[in-house]
Amino acid sequence: MDGIELLPDDYQKYDLPFKIVIIGDSGTGKSCFSSKGIKNIFEEAYSATVGFECFTFNIRINEKVIKLQIWDTCGQDIYRSLITNFERNSSLAIIVYSIDGKSSFKHIEYWLTELKSQNPDIKIFLVGNKSDLEEYRKVSKDEGENFVKENKLDIFFETSAKSDYNVQKVFIKSAKLLYSQYIESQNEIKKKEEKEEKEEKEEKEEKEEKEEEDSEEKEDEENDLNIEEYKKGKCSLNEHKENDAINFCRE
Ligand code: GTP
Q1: What distance in Å separates the CA atoms of residue 6 and residue 49, rounded to the nearest whole number?
Q2: How far is the CA of 161 from the centre of ligand 1 (A)?
Q3: Which of 26, 63, 136, 158 might form a disulfide with 128, Cβ 3.0–4.6 angstroms?
Q4: What is the C-alpha radius of gyration for the chain, rounded to an integer number of angstroms?
């Protein structure tokens, strides 16, 4: 891919760190999805995540090293209060359901509401995992796509941690989106600074112009006054002003 380089997960130097939280029902394959996308490992045997696990995904985009700190959370309700912390502190969330059953798909609404109550501005990806289980499919691709459209989420992917389909792509897309969001915010800051600088300059110029006008007005008033005084013989003027006054008197 252009301008993109995947880096080892222990790569130490980075420019931009971002946090990502992975949520969804228990057993949808969140942990397998994370370990496949990051370490290229797939565990067939299910072992429930205790609380959370943390992964790192490093990628270089346009000369900037982006470090994604990925929080794979446990789908069980008892850990809910722990998960809210990750939801609040993340820039992007990946909600995972599995395509081979309706219940985890129906439950996305719950995850979405919870997530938005913690972090209304968070970017959200929807992932329908276990796409290799085509013969057991209960949720169509259209249903996933429509949910994303209707709820204005950022992107939809079907993935398979087992057959390594689209998994790494989700993390690359996440990094790209967060990077472009960062660039946009930098551009906005730059634009705002330039606007403020321009306004300051205009204000300064206006002030200087006004000062100049005031000083010219004052000088004119002084001249008028001196001429009056001179005519009355009460004061002397400098040579320049004297000539002016003489001409004035002649008129
Ligand atoms: P919790 O930790 O309880 O929240 O579960 P989880 O969502 O992390 O699920 P986990 O990754 O542990 O996977 C649950 C089961 O689904 C395991 O037996 C995995 O082998 C299986 N699994 C995960 N991803 C896939 C996939 O893409 N295809 C298939 N066929 N099975 C998968």
Answers
A1: 27
A2: 8
A3: 158
A4: 34
